[in-house]
Automatic annotation (TrEMBL), chains A, B:
Gene that produces this protein: pabC
UniProt GO MF annotations: 4-amino-4-deoxychorismate lyase activity; pyridoxal phosphate binding
Transcription regulation is among the record's keywords: no
GO cellular component: cytosol
Transit peptide listed as a keyword: no
Name of protein: Aminodeoxychorismate lyase
Amino acid sequence: MLVNGHPGEHVDAIDRGVAYGHGLFETFLVINGVPIFYAEHLNRLLSGCERLGIPTQGLAEQLRHDLQLLSFPEGYSVLKLILTCGSGGRGYLTPNPASPTRIFMLSAMPVYPDQPHQGIRVRWCQTRLACQPLLSGIKHLNRLEQVLARNEWQDPSVREGLVCDSRGYVIEGTMSNLCFIRGNRLYTPALDQCGVEGIVRNQVLILAESSGLGVEIGHYRPQDVEAADEVFVCNSLIGIWPVIELGGRSYAWGRYTRQLQAAFNQRMVQC
Amino acid sequence: MLVNGHPGEHVDAIDRGVAYGHGLFETFLVINGVPIFYAEHLNRLLSGCERLGIPTQGLAEQLRHDLQLLSFPEGYSVLKLILTCGSGGRGYLTPNPASPTRIFMLSAMPVYPDQPHQGIRVRWCQTRLACQPLLSGIKHLNRLEQVLARNEWQDPSVREGLVCDSRGYVIEGTMSNLCFIRGNRLYTPALDQCGVEGIVRNQVLILAESSGLGVEIGHYRPQDVEAADEVFVCNSLIGIWPVIELGGRSYAWGRYTRQLQAAFNQRMVQC
């Protein structure tokens, strides 16, 4: 673990990340020491910083320097970056200048003995996401809604839960984005009011065309998802996981999802 | 500063307070070593714990023990308590058992040379609070909306900003609750969708009756506040601050506000 470029496992108790969740995070899949889709993660981080008033001058260079200090294992590993606005300020007012805190945490890739790449069980959550366009899309540290949603179930055989917003539109999983396919179109929820704009989601949207899929980003109800031919969730760590059971209904690990998984894996190793 | 009952200034970087804002805080005014309205703060903290799935067994005793380790100065000081869900868990899922982190931070009482108890300037914020009944009322660590609202202005002569929710109803200040008086009624916004249920706000509601004021908790627009005879904001640190300027309009430091300030000060020293 690295804190501001030095080995360490602690942050100041007065850090604005602790006090207010004033910060962002990124979770990188690392293959043989290479953080996959690094540029895309960095772009999302920087755009999050702009939204939250966290200065970015010199940040990209500092992060790159931090990365060189880490000893990555061979094969797959997981790298989490937390970037906070640092310490200080009078209450909620951001100090000027602010001195952000960078935390890199390297850990082993989780082992999934149940072959989730071939299909997972998913449930609907009761927790609703609030509509807050000022915070939508970015991966900020205010994640209580996800904590509440994820704690709705304990059954480890249920791999993910889908969450709607307060209007009743499906938004995402607790830790993943949602896509579904009907006919030859791929649908994924609009994220202008809540939700995180996932790196893999954006890759999927790019890859959909080459799989012969039209793409529609919009507002969908649970019944729209349930009426789909294929459903999957995705994030940087898991890639694409087909949903084979949702709310008591069964779905195929279908043709388009397989094509997208193959195309995505291809793209990933080209990174 | 005390972390889990030991002198310290750091928390684990993997604490759920840092990662998700999975925790709560309380800010106590301390007079001659006595945290004012301690029972009320503790009650709010415990009810927040219940909402966020943070275990409370033995917590009240631990906090009381922590307090005995602190060296309070004479006169006024400020004690902030952050309680997080601690470290661990697979992603958003809370570990079982969870081991909460307690952070006590004692600091000097801020000095206000501009006599804000006689009246402050206040502005309207553009930032809207999202409606999220699962998190309303409690003082959780997901405070990005407050950070965004407070950073809308830099002018130190403006002491507070008022924030509406996404429906356009006035909710509170960035760091305080809002009350206003028209005729012989005291009005304060309902906090069922967002906002923090302040300790001083609740005391004011109790004290209003003895000041000959009827009380109404409801949904109000900015124009309702602007049409008030008297306006004030309140929190545990500042007590009651009359608003004498809001959005270009002037207000009196009026009779009812003075009465409530006097009654509140009386009640405070009886604590």
